[in-house]
Design brief:
alpha+beta; five-stranded mixed sheet; two-stranded antiparallel ribbon; 8 helices; 59% helix; elongated
Length: 356
Amino acid sequence: MPSPFYTPTKTYLDDWRVATKLVAGFALFWAFAAGLLFLAAPGLGSFGLVLLLHETSGTAIVVTALLIRRSRWFPRARPMTQWLFTGVIAIPIGYVVGHAFGFLLLGEPVRLVSHAEGRMVPLVFTLLTAGVGLYFFATREQLANEAAERSEAQRLATESQLRMLRAQLEPHMLFNTLSNLRSLVSDDPQQAEVMIDRLIIYLRSALAASRTESTTLIREFAQLRAYLDIMSVRMGPRLIYRLELPSDLEPISIPPMLLQPLVENAIRHGIEPKVGSGTVEVMARRTPAGIEIAVNDSGIGLPPDHDAAPSSDTSSGSYGLLHVRERLAVIYAGRASLVLSRRAPSGVSVVVNIPA
């Protein structure tokens, strides 16, 4: 299933908006080249003629190169070989088509070379200029592909960390739940049945999340509800929770298991060590910048000397926060954020902001 967060590796020319910008940029490039040629060989005619022929030929060469690169029959080869192949075809075709179109606009007979003394100068100059332009294309595509490969490698590393995190979260919760179920079966069979039902819902949603790269907020909240229901049975009146998801945000896509580590941290490191009852709230709302999801708890809070920025210290429960922050950075390319802060009189607030 394709993910809205990840796109297959492709060349930057596959985006027509990028291609259009490149054509516009090369229009300026060919105008500059026409000026150089006019100054170097003034006997070729007026600057307007030289500029027109360069613009039509240059645009035809660039468009031909783009069409060749996007064609299905384009051979599989090394990038530089592909661009050499592109140049061998695009430059002569673009030169002929561009000159023909230029002279058609002028209403004159088509001439591929000038009748002046330096009649080969425009042809050689166009070949050299087009070669420089295609080399720029090749270099830029190579850099874009290398950046895409680095991004993909980083994404795979982050998803590998996610699988490790799931392996840490689920057994811990399962062992505690099964241990609690063992005592409930004999002491309170009805409550044990409720816990089993919630456990089935949680495991089903967790399994579905492990097989996809994206989920919706309503599915993520359903998984959180099943998890919190299980924890409520285990902890009894010590845990009170509230989930708030506006209906217009239910279909919003997010990475799976994004909120689970935050909720588990809130319970394990905030509510469980606290004497008395505590509250966990997960609330989503729309903001001018996108979507804000807050995970608040009224637990024991952060130690006085604890830095609000997550560290690599997994013993303090910061690993889950660090992992979520890294996933946000990779998936949303710096457009998302995670902010950790203290609450008054006690507790912790973790706020995740993602673009809509």
